[in-house]
Amino acid sequence: xxxxxxxxxxxxxxxxxxxxxxxxxxxxxxxxxxxxxxxxxxxxxxxxxxxxxxxxxxxxxxxxxxxxxxxxxxxxxxxxxxxxxxxxxxxxxxxxxxxxxxxxxxxxxxxxxxxxxxxxxxxxxxxxxxxxxxxxxxxxxxxxxxxxxxxxxxxxxxxxxxxxxxxxxxxxxxxxxxxxxxxxxxxxxxxxxxxxxxxxxxxxxxxxxxxxxxxxxxxxxxxxxxxxxxxxxxxxxxxxxxxxxxxxxxxxxxxxxxxxxxxxxxxxxxxxxxxxxxxxxxxxxxxxxxxxxxxxxxxxxxxxxxxxxxxxxxxxxxxxxxxxxxxxxxxxxxxxxxxxxxxxxxxxxxxxxxxxxxxxxxxxxxxxxxxxxxxxxxxxxxxxxxxxxxxxxxxxxxxxxxxxxxxxxxxxxxxxxxxxxxxxxxxxxxxxxxxxxxxxxxxxxxxxxxxxxxxxxxxxxxxxxxxxxxxxxxxxxxxxxxxxxxxxxxxxxxxxxxxxxxxxxxxxxxxxxxx
Length: 515
Fold this sequence. Notes:
By secondary structure, the chain is of the alpha+beta class. The protein has helices spanning 41-49, 59-78, 84-98, 117-138, 153-157, 163-199, 219-240, 262-276, 286-291, 294-323, 345-369, 379-405, 411-419, 429-446, 453-461, 463-469, 472-476; strands at residues 9-11, 15-16, 19-25, 30-34, 204-209, 212-218, 246-247, 281-282, 326-327, 408-409. It has three domains: 9-159, Orthogonal Bundle (Fumarase C, Chain B, domain 1); 164-412, Fumarase/aspartase (Central domain) (Fumarase C, Chain A, domain 2); 420-510, no CATH class. It contains 17 helices and ten strands. The strands form four sheets. Strands 1, 2, 3 and 4 form a four-stranded antiparallel sheet that branches. A two-stranded antiparallel sheet has the order 5-6. A hairpin with a 2-residue loop joins β2 (15-16) and β3 (19-25). 45% of the residues are buried.
């Protein structure tokens, strides 16, 4: 029988207890396949040869590759090199693959030798065989179902192409989509933090340096820092699309466009731009873009930064939850043995996503540096690492954004921390000077009444002064408005030293008294 055709020659089939089969031959030998299998001999060899990661080529890359094949078929038809009927069938088959209809057929391992040739051939074979079926269905008089296969994987689907120009192009198309999704997820996370920045703007709490209590600040200011760093991630992700829009489609094997018609070379990228809606541009130097993958390293570096911020803000939120300043949404029971325990599971998951991203993306620079002369044979590793990492970031950022939206402030806990934090006296340095603030702190520690610090300061400096200095507005203003040499406060039992004046040493009888 004659059914789908493979990479090489297809011979008549036989009928067995398991159904009809076909035999395909290539330069290695021959293989018997199921007659209706859209995959061909090269795909099956690759499935046998590469039993490595247990992960198939990512569906996002396969779908992007189908759009590249569609563009090439249309360019070949427009320039007169491909029968319009065959080109149309390839385009329809490509649309099916791009929609995910045939994802299950692309099971070649993500880590494969040959710079992605097995992925390219899997597309060529599936598209050729499916296009043959479509032609038989649409034009049975011209392409009878029991006739010879109409569409060739190499002669038609791969016409004027090489793995070395189509694979990098497909990868960049895939990554542009993922970069846009990642930028959108970063925008959602930034917005969630900005909402909390406003909500917590009047909640005064304790700032920290090296995990220890530092000067007071507002919880809203803390969340503004989260929002800003994620905002930079959003902007960098948005801008890095520029590094992906330059493609080498049409360059064929080594970037010289050998064996490809000039008109096709100039048209293929334009058509791909129309199909995808992405602002793609043909590289001015196709040899460079075929040989070098440094643009992908740059994009990987940008997402290394995003991963670092994802880990940092998630760890900080977990710390704030531990200190009691914020209350995380309770999502699931935290222990199989400890009743009532609820853990910060979303934050821990986001941290793991960031760590996985950083580890995977570190491979990109190494793989790019190992390319040899006119091709990078390790692009499958680059593709696997980058697609996984960008997908992880988008998912983690969206999940974290939803989680942040449910965070509440525990104002009572924040107030307690503030009342027991010795560093709060730093806020009064502009009023009483460094030495005066130290005297206040010594006096509070020595006070046998064990008053909360705020109450002690109110007693010594006046409640209105303390309320003003520790107000959200004062704590988040850009510096203070005092003039040099002017004492800001006159209060009982307190003299504000002038800047540069020597500190008054306490007399023995002063020890333990109010400063």
